[in-house]
Amino acid sequence: MATSTERPGPMRGWSVLVAAWGVALVSTLGALFIGEVMGMTPCLLCWYQRIFMFPLALILGMAAFAEDRRGAVYALPLALIGVAVAAYHTALVAGWVPKWWVPCGTGPSCSDQSLEILDGIQIPWLSLAAFIAIAILLFVYLRKTRS
Predict the structure, then answer these.
(1) Phi, psi of 11, deg, nearest 5
(2) For the chain, which ranges sit under pLDDT 50?
(3) Is the sign of the CA dihedral 82, 99, 44, 36 positive or negative?
(4) φ, ψ of residue 38 in degrees (nearest 5)
């Protein structure tokens, strides 16, 4: 009886792509829950973040189950733009950006609205963490599958 000394790597390429899809799916479902179930009206910057997150759940889901590298290539720009918008929103909520830079007009304020869930966690922080995680996972996946 032969035994193999091969050890599997920490994450194969496909599992990295599935992990990115999982983060996008949980983020999308979380945003829908916060808006539709909890009744929190999204501000303008939250809408922009949704515009970049929701397609990621679809694109990465299709790419993961078809094992198609092109899905990660298409998703990466969405994730990076989402990082930029979420980082700006996080800086705005933290008070690092002057109030006159606030892009919100009518509707909920991007900086003054109570954007907390789970006892003090700011929603823009969660969005930033999700976009950063997706971008890192996509970079790792694209590097592993480079031909």
Answers:
(1) -150, 120
(2) 4-11
(3) positive
(4) -80, -15
